[in-house]
């Protein structure tokens, strides 16, 4: 990755938020079905869990193909819409096009990964996701020198497709709880689909709106120039090293809370959610402290451009201040999702990012440039963490009466 100059980095950074939008919709489908799987496994009803998975597979295939076609259709004009400089358009368009073509593999992989996690198998998805990263790096090293930005897209796409096939095999065939048995008949169950829609639609709406806000942020950053776009992209990449463990803990929280809700252990479910929040906060705080000191070395490996390195380090250090409360928001969202509490957390997330982040970014980008955008992001992450911590403490979804009322209504 050290061959990246500012233009190549900026081309990917320009469409990165748009790829998050498509990926977010895929994650909503996974949430809608995997949370149900956690509840049924917790209730020792593996047959029902497999029925849910079958409905999830069909839904995932249909939605991901539609998203792929939409992505292919807009890949050409997208960089223009986002306000990127003309020399970035071709590379950015090619990168987004390849990403769109991998969406069916990504969708099924995420469904399989989330389903395995919610069945209690955290090890297999973790290993395979790690292999994805390693394979991505290896293929990028081979393809980038020859094809540039297109090579990066192809390397990531091949890595995603290969591991997706293995992930689907591990879930759909080899899993003791979820492995599909052809002898088991499964008719279309409207209740499964309705419940998936109720759980997943707030998550999907949240992902659309949050990714939309990220696209707006990209449009705010784009006029600052190529160096700012590249520095912003690299800073986000480096920060992901800090928050990836948090998302792992959030997934574990969904599983533990969901299985205990399914087993009727509501107080224990909330306790697991609180433990996950504490662990996530501790780990991400430590990661943030380490990254604060080593980020100049990280950026040396990512780009040879000294101006990009310096700006990326400066803005990343601003964002790292919010890492503890960012961890709280991630883990609390995972715990609440396991309890089927998705509507209010989604509203809180949306209000935070659209009002606090974008409002502050528009006010601060003029006088402070990219630094102002990251000050706005850090402030918003702190607000979001406090809001979701309050929801975790007050949520009524950690009670048997609430779930009986929900299921009676269905």
Q: Your description of this structure?
A:
By secondary structure, this protein is mainly α. The chain has two domains: 201 residues, no CATH class; 186 residues, no CATH class. Helix content is 85%, strand content 0%. Helix 10 packs antiparallel against helix 11.
For this entry, give a set of tags.
2 domains, 85% helix, mainly alpha, 410 residues, single chain
- Strand portion: under 5%
Q: Please give the radius of gyration in angstroms.
A: 21 Å
Number of structurally distinct domains? 2
In N-to-C order, the SSE pattern is HHHHHHHHHHHHHHH
> How many helical stretches?
15
Shape: globular
Which stretches of 5+ consecutive residues score pLDDT under 50?
A: none
The number of distinct β-strands equals 0
Major sheet description: none
Give the helix/strand class.
Answer: mainly alpha
Cα-to-Cα separation, first versus last residue: 51 Å
Helix content: over 70%
Mean pLDDT: 90
